Amino acid sequence: MASKGGFSRGQAATEFFINYGWAIVIVLAIMAVLYSTIFKPEFYVAERCDIAPGLVCDNFKLEAVGDGSVRLTLQAHNTMGFSINITRMDYTLKDPMGGSEVNSSSIQAIGPLSDGDSFSAPVTATFNVGAVASPGTLYRIRFSVNFTDNDVSPAIPHRTAGVINVRLSG
pTM score > 0.90 for this model? Predict the structure, then answer.
């Protein structure tokens, strides 16, 4: 009689794991999918381009260009109320894969830009990140813009900054 009772308890435990094991596996699979999408911070961060007042982003794009590099293309326009010359733009990209920061500079002069004028050609910056992430990966790029006010003599140098959150295009 004792061995029969032991057998039924073992059978009950086996039936329990067979019946409810599938439910546990399904719940774990759902949690894994949610963790890999919804619970990532990048899921909630929208693409955006913010510059200090006076310069407005019109268009921006980040694309892989091969050899472990990505290229930012930025187009903006002047809303400062006066004519400016952009003398330098410096960029710092935060690599989401390695966590390191990669710098790039654009020394080309842009201008004169009257109030309301867009950059005549998009500004590009190339970053050597070593290993390019998959399309859709969110990158954060901080940048600074050095410019002069053309409406005063002598031209006064100014510096402003901005940030771009952009996903790598596919």
Answer: no
